[in-house]
Amino acid sequence: MTAKIAVSLPDELVAEARAAVESGRVASVSAYVAEAMAEKSRRRTLADVLDELDAEFGAPDSASMDRANRVLDALEGP
Predict the structure, then answer these.
(1) Cα angle at 21 between 35 and 41, to 5 degrees?
(2) Which of 2, 6, 25, 50 could form a disulfide with 20 if both were Cys (CB 3.0 to 4.6 A apart)?
(3) Quick check: 48 and 41 in contact, CB under 8 A?
(4) For 78, what's the count of Cα atoms within 13 Å in the CB-facing half-sphere?
(5) What whole-number distance in Å separates Cα of residue 59 and Cα of residue 47?
């Protein structure tokens, strides 16, 4: 089931969505917006999970965060 809604977006976001359609990355502007909203929902859910882990086990200490950042930086490459 889908619902039709109207939203106002900044011109640059509309241009980005239309470019994604023109390049064939998505079928429609609606699909682009739906994917963006689904991604936002997943991120919020991940934040909730991380908050629960912090509550149960405590937040990572600075040494752990530094190590994690080094690993992530290495994965990104030059």
Answers:
(1) 10
(2) 25
(3) no
(4) 0
(5) 13
Say which residue the tokens 């990572």 belong to: 60
With a cut of 90, say whether residue 78 has pLDDT above it: no
Q: How confident is the model at residue 14 (pLDDT cuts 50, 70, 90)?
A: very high
Q: Are 50 and 60 in contact (CB under 8 A)?
A: no
Within the chain, how many helices (H) and strands (E) appear? 3, 0
The contacts of residue 9 (CB under 8 Å, 6+ apart) are: 17
In this predicted model, which residue has the larger pLDDT, 62 or 78? 62
Which stretch of DSSP H or E encloses residue 59? none
Q: How far is CA 8 from the centre of its chain?
A: 20
